[in-house]
Write a structure and sequence with these properties.
The protein is α/β, with parallel strands linked by helices. The chain has 2 domains: about 160 residues, Tumour Suppressor Smad4 (Sandwich), CATH 2.60.200.20; about 260 residues, P-loop containing nucleotide triphosphate hydrolases (Rossmann fold), CATH 3.40.50.300. It has 11 helices and 24 strands. The strands form 4 sheets. It has a 10-stranded mixed β-sheet with strand order 19-18-15-16-24-23-17-22-21-20, with helices on both faces. A hairpin with a 2-residue loop joins strand 7 and strand 8. Helix 5 runs parallel beside helix 7. The longest helix has 18 residues. It is globular. The N terminus is likely disordered.
């Protein structure tokens, strides 16, 4: 089966071999100290349990036997039985115990919570066959006294993504918003803000969101990042989890960067990121881990050379990067930026979008940015264009910059005028 450019096959015990890595269940040998991948949907894991083909990005599967074990721990700390390489996880996040009558899962007072079949657990929960245990986007399936999970760690997954053309990367967010309505402050009833917004966003891509005045750019973005889902009819699925109903489970993976500068002018970037990490990461994160996250963030944003400079003395582009770093230091995977290029000179805009492209293509971050200036539009992998028709924000286009030019029959900067004059002609 060809999915996203790779052949990945799976088999149940006794089935014929298929091309690619295989998961044979059950495995008689336990796999201690395996590393769980954060990049799998629970539905994919259920396919593996059932011996079906799963649509994946190239991960292999593993399973961990609970037989003969009184308890195991899952968490960020290296000493856990199952280690998940995710900054938002607590050092010891969850525990599974073997007791008379079966296996039970307990959350260890984690910051991000432990979920079974989409419900946040409190106390001890008895596991049943095919139960899905989730911590953010780390998923495990309980089957036949074992935990089934994706084997690859985050670094391996990002390495696979780097080899893939951005246009062929897997979909990480799918929005199917029929409508969003709010209370009408100027009269009775409800006011509709957006309608029929159907979008796919691929993992590790840089996405531009554009639109005419009042077309709902901020509204759509705040639905995509889960910040404002009140009054939404439809779904916004991030890594297979519907944010409309399960935002609490996934919020630690999503970062929102406002247009206004939120940093402390008297701080340095190093101090700013350190404080942000202390506020955003679990309370059991050590200072060494925090410093590693700060150093990594400075490197990713090309700010190592100005780490000791006061924020007030930074260039406009560097100040914007500090804003981004406040979310990035907590290892957010999905970043939403509101006009980050506002007020920047052309050279600083190019520098900023080069760094954002680097975050997407090389580090696997998915970056969605509201912009108005389209001078650097070809640096983006995807363009989302919105238009206002009948007083409601609608989707006019979603695709590559080249496809946008074909769709509108004009340069993208001229598409604004077309959408102002005849929005109905382009609404999808």
């Amino acid at each position: 089966m060809d999915t996203n450019g790779y052949n990945w096959g799976f088999r149940a015990a006794g089935d014929l071999d298929l091309d690619g890595p295989v998961a044979t269940l059950p495995n008689p040998e336990p796999q201690p100290m395996a590393t769980a991948s954060p990049f799998m949907r629970a539905g994919d894991l259920l396919d593996v349990v059932d011996g079906k083909h799963a649509e994946t990005k190239g991960q292999q599967w593993d399973d961990f036997s609970l037989e003969g074990r009184k308890s195991i721990t899952i968490g960020r700390k290296a000493g856990c039985d199952l280690v998940a390489d995710r900054a938002y996880l607590s050092a010891e996040h969850a525990k599974i115990t073997t007791e008379k009558g079966g296996h039970f899962v307990t959350d260890c007072g984690s910051a991000a919570g432990t979920y079974v079949n989409g419900a946040k657990i409190t106390g001890k929960v008895h596991l049943k066959e095919r139960d899905q245990i989730s911590m953010g986007d780390c998923n495990y399936i309980y089957s036949a006294g074992r935990l089934v999970f994706a084997k690859n760690d985050a670094d391996t997954t990002r390495s696979v993504l780097r080899k893939m053309d951005p246009g062929r990367r897997p979909v990480v967010l799918r929005a199917d918003i029929k409508t969003k309505q709010v209370k009408n402050n100027n009269g009775a009833g409800m006011k509709e803000l957006i309608r029929d917004i159907h979008l796919d966003v691929k993992e590790g891509t840089l996405v531009a969101m554009l639109g005419t005045a009042g077309a709902g750019k901020s509204t759509v973005m705040n639905c995509m990042n889960g910040m404002d889902l009140l009054g939404v009819q439809g779904s916004v699925n991030y890594r297979g989890v519907d944010l409309v109903h399960n935002f609490e489970q996934m919020k630690y993976l999503i970062g929102s960067v406002p247009q206004e500068k939120i940093f402390h002018p008297a701080f340095t970037p190093e101090e700013e990121f350190t404080q942000a990490a202390m506020l955003r990461l679990p309370g059991d994160t050590s200072m060494k881990e925090i410093q590693n996250r700060v150093n990594k963030t400075l490197e990713m944003l090309s700010m190592s050379g100005v780490r000791k400079n006061r924020n007030s003395k930074l260039s406009g582009g560097e100040k914007t990067r500090v804003n981004v770093g406040i979310e990035l230091v907590a290892d957010r995977d999905f970043l939403c930026l509101d006009e980050p290029d506002q007020g920047l000179s052309p050279n600083y805009k190019h520098e900023l979008f080069t760094i954002l492209q680097h975050l997407a293509h090389d580090y696997g971050k998915t970056v969605v940015s509201i912009i108005h200036d389209v001078s650097e539009i070809d640096m983006f992998d995807q363009v989302i264009m919105l238009a206002k028709a009948g007083g409601v924000g609608r989707l006019a286009f979603s695709g590559s910059p080249a496809d946008a030019r074909d769709y509108f029959g004009a340069d993208i900067r001229d598409a604004y005028a077309l959408l102002e004059r005849t929005p109905e002609k382009f609404i999808r």
